[in-house]
Design a protein that fits this description.
about 270 residues; disordered C terminus; two-stranded antiparallel ribbon; single chain; 2 domains; alpha/beta
């Protein structure tokens, strides 16, 4: 048996070395700092919005969603260096800035997520029929023993939230998560959520990989709802024609929608109809 030699080291050890990659991804693969700075003017001595968002993204990557968690890293030299920060925000300032600019920050983060995929040349694999499925699905949570705002009866018969996720099915890239009240209908929200990404995703990868189609886990979509979203340009017609597939959404006549085509998830693998 080999003898191990144990000695004292002067090296610094950290439990969150992966933040080095997170910081690099934010700096080199997105325009998050620039887009966040455009939200509103700040005093010259104020912490940039980009640093605020980078700090919170780092917390999320460490599995910490509470703003108070930032206090444990304010004097952590590796945390600051990995994210390229001169200083980290206090918990109070971080919460205040996020609450005050939530809607604008959300837009910047959505753009950054797609930009990261583009600059990283992330593989986006189409199905055999050439379509790239963008899934929008509801995943009810069980929060029965809590009294949080938004907890309500879900379609699974449990009290909880009903968050929606928008993700590219083949590789599993999650583009957005939206926390919703439990009582919100599963077909209310996914088209809007996924539709926000259609323009950005069209610029990723070769042309043959840009045939995006919004898919849903619903056995059959609400046809009235589909027609409504088409009129607003959020979704487009079935790739093979509205009447092409009995399990897919559609109306009596094709609607020239400007947005994503929409199909029931179990039918997205169908070959294009001639």
């Amino acid at each position: 048996m080999r003898r191990l030699i144990i000695s004292k080291s002067t090296a610094d050890f950290t439990s969150h070395a992966g933040l080095g990659l997170v910081g690099m991804a934010i700096r080199d693969r997105t325009n998050l700092a620039t887009d966040a700075a455009a939200v509103s003017a700040l005093r010259s001595d104020a912490m940039p919005y980009g640093d605020m968002l980078a700090s919170y993204v780092a917390l999320l990557c460490l599995g910490k969603s509470d703003c108070e968690a930032i206090d444990a890293f304010r004097n952590d030299p590796f945390f600051l260096e990995a994210l390229g920060l001169e200083r980290a925000p206090s918990a109070a300032i971080l919460r205040q800035r996020l609450d005050a600019n939530a809607a604008d920050f959300k837009d910047a983060v959505i753009v950054a997520a797609i930009e990261f995929l583009r600059r990283s040349e992330a593989p986006i694999t189409p199905l055999g029929n050439g379509l790239v499925p963008l899934d929008a699905d509801v995943a009810p949570m069980n929060n029965a023993k809590t009294k949080k705002k938004g907890v309500a009866r879900t379609y699974k018969g449990e009290n909880g939230f009903a968050p929606t996720a928008a993700y590219l099915r083949q590789e599993g890239y999650c583009l957005e998560l939206e926390l919703r009240e439990g009582s919100q209908h599963s077909q209310k929200g996914p088209p809007e959520l996924a539709g926000q990404h259609r323009q950005g995703l069209k610029n990723i990868g070769p042309a043959e990989r840009r045939r995006l189609v919004l898919t849903t886990a619903a056995p059959r979509l609400d046809l009235d709802g589909v027609a409504h979203h088409r009129r607003l340009g959020r979704i487009g017609p079935h790739p093979g024609g509205d009447a092409a597939c009995s399990g897919c959404s559609g109306s009596a006549a094709p609607w020239p929608g400007r947005g994503l085509p929409v199909i029931a998830a179990q039918h997205v693998g169908h070959e294009p109809h001639q």
